[in-house]
Amino acid sequence: MLRFDVITIFPDLLGPYLAESILARAQEKGLLEVHVHDLRDYTTDRHKSVDDRPYGGGPGMVMMPGPIFTAVEDIEAKADVKPRIVLLTPQGRTFTQSLAAEFSNQPRLMLVCGRYEGFDERVRTGLAADEISIGDYVLTGGELPAAVIIAATARLLPGVLGHEDSARDDSFSLDGRLDHPQYTRPADFRGMKVPQVLLSGHHQAIEDWRRQHRLARTRERRPDILCRD
Ligand code: SAM
Q1: Nearest-angstrom CA–CA distance, 63 and 54
Q2: Which residue is catalytic, options 117, 131, 169, 179?
Q3: CATH of residue 205
Q4: Is 76 tagged catalytic?
Q5: Are residues 14 and 100 in the same domain?
Q6: 131 an active-site residue?
Q7: Fewer beta carbons within 10 angstroms: which end of the chain, N or C?
């Protein structure tokens, strides 16, 4: 079982996504728990402030360290195992399938979502957290990155996908390559035919075809990941 704790100022953003499909079933089966915490519950002033103006001037607001440290420490104090803390930031290490696999072996993960101009630097230096980005672009908040990490990680937990091999064969997984082309019925759609070998029932020939296409497709589209072998 993997438990996520998400700290955010928009706790309602994640709910609908987590309540559908595979993620909902994973939670029903007790394989996944997601606890969303409203950062404003950890503030001390009347206005429930989580941000303030940047020292040195400039546009936008910066997330104050106080409420974030209080939230993290409160969740940690109630935890039976220490959660691994993940700070969501476009300046972090890029999230990958292998990191999703690593996360799926953790008992608990705490995802801290930023907003505005991001976190006061002391959040970064003081929390000793992993800093993770979901790609080289800037979103308005960490909630979508949190959902991405939960979705990519949860589907790797044993028992979450209907078919255990589904995740093993995915792009970036089995041999680090892209997945092979997939076809379903009809065998002929508007003159575009399914490759004959896939209709042959010859398992070894099908496996060879798929391996060749994984390699060719990766070489064509992502030579950068092929070179990592
Ligand atoms: N000023 C920051 C910078 O340039 O590095 C960007 C702040 S961004 C507008 C606000 C928050 O959204 C960040 O603190 C982070 O939590 C989240 N965020 C935005 N883009 C992200 C990405 N690519 N990966 C992870 N988190 C991201």
Answers
A1: 9
A2: 117
A3: 1.10.1270.20
A4: no
A5: yes
A6: no
A7: C
Cβ–Cβ under 8 Å, residues 62 and 53: yes
Tens digits of per-residue pLDDT, 70-114?
999 999 999 999 999 999 999 999 999 999 999 999 999 999 999
Task: Examine the domain organization and report whether 147 and 179 are in the same domain.
Answer: no
- Residues 121, 201 within the same domain: no
**Among 170, 181, 210, 222, the one annotated catalytic:** 170
Contacts of 167 (CB under 8 A, 6+ apart): 155, 156, 161, 173
Model pTM score: 0.96
Distance (angstroms) between ligand 1 centre and the Cα of 31 equals 29
- Pocket around ligand 1: residues whose beta carbon is below 6 Å from it? 88-91, 113-115, 117-119, 133-135, 137-142, 145
Average pLDDT over residues 147-175: 90
* Residue to substitute in 61, 136, 139 for testing ligand 1 pocket (most ligand atoms within 8 angstroms of CB): 139
Amino acid at 185: R
CB half-sphere exposure, 9, CA atoms < 13 A:
17
Residue to mutate, 8, 89, 120, ligand 1, most ligand atoms under 8 Å from C-beta: 89
List phi, psi (to 5°) of 134.
-95, 5
- Regarding whether 139 and 29 lie in a shared domain, the answer is yes
Give residue 228's pLDDT. 60
